[in-house]
Design goal:
337 residues, alpha/beta, 14 helices, 46% helix
Amino acid sequence: MNNPLVTVVVPVYNVEKYLDRCIDSIVNQTYKNLEIILIDDGSPDNCPKMCDAWAEKDSRIKVIHKQNAGLGMARNSGIEAATGEYIFFIDSDDYIDIFAVEKSVATAINSKSQIVMFGHTNFDDFANFSPLKIKTDKLYFEGEDLFNDLLPGLFVYDRGLGVRTGNKMFSLKLLKENNLFYKSEREIISEDAFFALELFKHVNKVAILPENLYFYYKNPKSLTSTYREDRQEKNNLFLIEALKEIEQNKYPDCVARALKVRYHSYTISALKQILNSDLNDTEKKENIYKIFKDNTLNETLSSDVLSAEKKTLKIFYYLIRYKMYYLAFMMLKIRVK
């Protein structure tokens, strides 16, 4: 089949400012055989009406209105409703290049791959565009390279690809036959990373499309930027559950090391959120020192894990490892500024 139906799932919640931009980039794809599923996740703004208006304009668009349950559950509704041969998940404040579907389908068919990954570009409200360079000359990964090279590379971004779902096209058969669904981000943070761990044990071949075709909006009000008192507790839960998944799937040690490096980046985010919060200086210091002394964090500060960190972070975590908390605190304050 040279022109298979492709499903594009768009979870929608409180994004009326960006929704038209996202949907416009999908309906104007050069590849026309699309099934576009908009999941209105109980959005409190004008998004439900906007979704319905788009469905009236384009017969390829279906709208599912549901009670709010979060991003992961919205994606799952899309998987259940999808009928295409391939599936994309596009966040509703992001958008894709008009050639993204056409090039991904051609790559999948020509290489007989179950997943196609491509690069992405970050952008903000000030029209600053920052493309992430794809750092691999390999166009295909299969066999042991999936677990010894690609999967750990996704966790630490050393391929310039990452585990984010948006810059990937999946075989829908791969997901449905293996009963693969997303965790709720309310249950476990970084549902994309956890999904990758569950997914890869079923994957035979991945193709790399060396172009930046996904545009990721850096929203200053996103869940990852907003201070939450329990953020580090959720980071710890993610690490514990992800390591269980790695052990259960018998992934090589390099995957666990890369996962811990990713957990360290989540810890940095939690620390930055505290510094940028409305807490007073004493409360900020107390909360930061609490994380420094966290047992789960300290168990990850082994030399083999820290050797994979970038130089500055390596120094920062060595300071924590050797209980030089004041120096680590000052280093953190300088980095955040």
